Amino acid sequence: MDTPDTRGPRSTVPGAQAIARAAHLLRLVTAAGDAGATVGDLAHDADLTRPTAHRLLSALRLEGLVDRDDTTGHWLPGPELYLMGSVAASRFDVTAVARDIVRSLAVRTEESAFLSVRRGDETVCLVREDGSFPIRSFVLSEGVRFPLGVASAGLAILAFLPPQDVDAYLERHPELAERWGASHSPARLRTRVADTKARGYAVNPGLIVEGSWGVGAAVFTRSGDPQWALSLTGVEFRFGGERLAELGRILLAHAHQLSTRIAAR
């Protein structure tokens, strides 16, 4: 399934820019989690003026899609989002069939294990299960988003998209190197995509947070599209040599199990 980039405005549709801005704010609010976010932070991250962000948030609040903590002033997901999500879950949510697999992955490896889903040009973490090893990485948790190709889950998905989709994605996002570092330049990302396809799973050698490594494997729809990913994160010394290869084998086995289960639904 080709998933379009849902973030840019559709200028040919009346009102599309306002809807795109509001949708972007909704994603930012949900990504902030239980702590919420200030209007200033949301305006900055959405590349909006503070008055524009406040006006859109206020409109979303009237519809119940966001809420505001009157004590802290932070904006939070609203009750209507929960109701909408509950209805949509029956069609899109795979966490019910994946949670035991993610848990098994954490138990087998003793590392933190995750399920992420592709949403447009990003991945969103849906499930986190911590392993028993006491030193953990907290780069990823439920609701956190990364562009494709940045975290190991997104790199695994990007690597198994059709080549023309990879080209189009890199053309749409020339800002990746500036935001995430030189290792995310188009040339270096293409090299990592090729390495991932050859290996079968993606490796992130501390490119987001120094010393925090990750490995990811794509999970496929019945038609063979990489729509989800399983991943592991942990400290660098746990991801070297033969152990990295063993983690990759375990990860691929669990990803195959989940792909098979999803196809059978």
UniProtKB/TrEMBL annotation:
<keyword id="KW-0238">DNA-binding</keyword>
<dbReference type="Pfam" id="PF01614">
    <property type="entry name" value="IclR_C"/>
</dbReference>
<dbReference type="InterPro" id="IPR036388">
    <property type="entry name" value="WH-like_DNA-bd_sf"/>
</dbReference>
<feature type="domain" description="HTH iclR-type">
    <location>
        <begin position="16"/>
        <end position="79"/>
    </location>
</feature>
<dbReference type="GO" id="GO:0045892">
    <property type="term" value="P:negative regulation of DNA-templated transcription"/>
</dbReference>
<keyword id="KW-0805">Transcription regulation</keyword>
<protein>
    <submittedName>
        <fullName>Transcriptional regulator, IclR family</fullName>
    </submittedName>
</protein>
<dbReference type="Pfam" id="PF09339">
    <property type="entry name" value="HTH_IclR"/>
</dbReference>
<dbReference type="InterPro" id="IPR029016">
    <property type="entry name" value="GAF-like_dom_sf"/>
</dbReference>
<dbReference type="InterPro" id="IPR036390">
    <property type="entry name" value="WH_DNA-bd_sf"/>
</dbReference>
<feature type="domain" description="IclR-ED">
    <location>
        <begin position="80"/>
        <end position="264"/>
    </location>
</feature>
<dbReference type="GO" id="GO:0003700">
    <property type="term" value="F:DNA-binding transcription factor activity"/>
</dbReference>
<dbReference type="InterPro" id="IPR050707">
    <property type="entry name" value="HTH_MetabolicPath_Reg"/>
</dbReference>
<dbReference type="InterPro" id="IPR014757">
    <property type="entry name" value="Tscrpt_reg_IclR_C"/>
</dbReference>
<dbReference type="InterPro" id="IPR005471">
    <property type="entry name" value="Tscrpt_reg_IclR_N"/>
</dbReference>
<keyword id="KW-0804">Transcription</keyword>
<dbReference type="GO" id="GO:0003677">
    <property type="term" value="F:DNA binding"/>
</dbReference>
